Amino acid sequence: MEETIHITVEDQHGGIRQLEIPEGINLSLMEVLKASEYDILATCGGMALCATCHIEVLEGGEKLDPLNDAELDMLDTLPDASDVSRLACQIRLNPALDGLKIRVFGNN
């Protein structure tokens, strides 16, 4: 039986929604957020070059792979980046991320 990955998303207005993502979908968190109609521009198409998929990890950050150099470089350019900031395009979905809680930033 296929497992489901549950991710809680807080939007820029404080609204909270839980996403249920089938395990094995082989997408990035950015792709899932865009498909779920969050305001993510993803101008660079997931190459860690634009930071328009900036999120904050509220819970479960220890489950994520470490930041890579490209992601660190982009986050350094953001005035509102914090120590829990990540780029959603650099987070590949996997069952270990079940229970992750994030905050997305709008591009309005």
TrEMBL record:
Leader sequence residues: none
The UniProt record lists the keyword Metal-binding: yes
Domain spans labelled 2Fe-2S ferredoxin-type: 3-108
Keyword Metal-binding: yes
Cofactor(s) demanded: [2Fe-2S] cluster
Recorded superkingdom: Bacteria
CDD domains recorded: fer2 (cd00207)
Keywords from the named record: 2Fe-2S, Iron, Iron-sulfur, Metal-binding
Annotated InterPro entries: 2Fe-2S_ferredoxin-like_sf, 2Fe-2S_ferredoxin-type, Adrenodoxin-like, Beta-grasp_dom_sf
Family: Belongs to the adrenodoxin/putidaredoxin family.
Identification of the protein by name: 2Fe-2S ferredoxin
Gene: fdxB
